[in-house]
Amino acid sequence: MSFAAILGQERALGFLRRMVDRGRVPGALLFLGPHQVGKRTAALTLAKALNCEREGATGWDSCDTCPSCRKVDAGVHPDVISVAPDGQFIKIGQVREITEQLGLNPLLARRRMVVLREAERMNPDAANAFLKTLEEPPADTLIVLCAEDTSRLLPTIVSRCVPVRFNPLPEEVLRRLLAAQPGGAAPQGDGLDFAVRLAQGRLRPELATRLPAWLEIREELLRAFRNPDGALGAGLGEKFAKWSASGDWGFVLEWLETWFRDVALLAAGGQEGRLINADRADDVRALAPRMTAESAAHGFAAVLGTRDALARNANKHLALEALWLTLCQEGLALPGGSA
Fold first, then answer.
1. Residues 175 and 161 both lie in one domain
2. Number of structural domains, the chain?
3. Last residue of a domain, one of 121, 138, 165
4. Contact (CB, 8 A) for 279 and 194
5. Which of 137, 165, 193 is the last residue of a domain?
6. Is there a contact between 26 and 158 (Cβ–Cβ < 8 Å)?
7. What is the CATH number of the domain that holds 123?
8. Residue 126 contacts by C-beta under 8 Å, 6 or more apart in sequence?
9. 183 with 152, same domain?
10. Could you tell me the sign of the dihedral formed by the alpha carbons of 22, 23, 28, 33, in that order?
11. Is residue 12 within 8 Å of residue 166, measured between CB atoms?
């Protein structure tokens, strides 16, 4: 992919272009912004542009066809190092491997690149070890840290990097990108509208591949909200087990968050145009007058509590069923209830 193919980040790419055109690319950059908005793609494309082998070409972008560009695209370039969290964290062992590689001369590249994905997830030992690398980076190396924000990064790391800010993707860009995602049928109509709103400015490939199943899950949950007692008797618990086994439990919780967020929005007098479930506005509208914004916030908090329990390795099936029972007991799942 070339820079021309990266959509919705014109400001960030313009900043990078000015640095490249002036020949003043620093030793360390900090790409800041939400996950899945193009930070890692931009970093790897920058690596291609700095090392492109095209002949007689002008301009700052990569050619996408020379051996160097193809190696970066295939993830096999020996001088373009991409590091992601190992489990929950980037660990000190990973940082030590980077340090060892940086102690050697680049094999092919004019400018070696190290990309740290989700750099805010470095554990304390890794962060302190990486700081030493940033204090004396090799002259032939560019280090790019990708993070959502600076709050979980050491201030000393932040101070040694030039920040580049990436924004959530505009809805019109998300529509184009989601419709073009490979691996599944492109979402259409109301499904595409919901996918764009659910994405919240992030390109999520699973929305193209899992969206049909997720829309069915949403309809099951909406039916349960309309008639919770009957839904439980008709096997909602079994559905929770199925969703847990299929890995769709994350969407169940995410959608419940959007549901209570939408109900709270209308209960507080907000505009329907801001609903995430705008294509199911009738359902939200039916419940909003019977629930206060405060009680909807209680439901939202209950969902977050379930997320926390699952992060501590709670049983997914039991956690989902317990959440639903809690919502029913507190009146948050009942058509006429209130907390």
1. no
2. 2
3. 165
4. yes
5. 165
6. no
7. 3.40.50.300
8. 89, 90, 91, 92, 94, 95
9. no
10. positive
11. yes
- Kindly give the confidence (pLDDT) of every residue in the chain, 339 residues in length, as a single tens digit, with 9 standing for 90 and above: 788 889 999 999 999 999 988 889 999 999 999 999 999 999 999 999 999 988 755 567 888 899 999 999 999 999 999 999 999 899 999 999 999 999 999 999 999 999 999 999 999 999 999 999 998 888 899 999 999 999 999 999 999 999 999 999 999 999 888 877 665 556 667 788 899 999 999 998 888 788 889 999 999 888 887 776 655 545 677 888 888 888 899 999 999 999 999 999 988 888 998 999 999 999 888 877 777 888 888 999 999 999 999 988 899 888 988 888 888 877 776 544 444
Phi, psi of 163 (to 5 degrees): -80, 140
Domain contains 338 = no
- The three-state secondary structure class of 259 is helix
- Residue 336 located in a structural domain: no
Residue 58 covered by a domain: yes
152 and 181 in a common domain: no
Burial of 241 (0-12, 13-18, 19+ CB in 10 A): middle
Residue 119 contacts residue 154 (beta carbons within 8 Å): no
Residue with tokens 């390109």: 203
Q: Look up residue 209 and give its two tokens.
A: 């591949």
Cα 44 to its chain centre, rounded Å, is: 17
What pLDDT score does 34 carry?
96
Cα 214 from Cα 219, distance rounded (Å): 9
Pair 48, 182 in one domain: no
Q: Are residues 76 and 198 in the same domain?
A: no
Say if residue 178 is in the same domain as residue 307. Answer: yes
Same domain? For 62 and 157 the reply is yes
Give the C-alpha distances (Å, rounded to integers) separating 284 from 185, 192, 193, 225, 288. Answer: 28, 19, 16, 10, 6
Please name the residue that has the structure tokens 């799942």: 333
Model confidence, pTM = 0.85
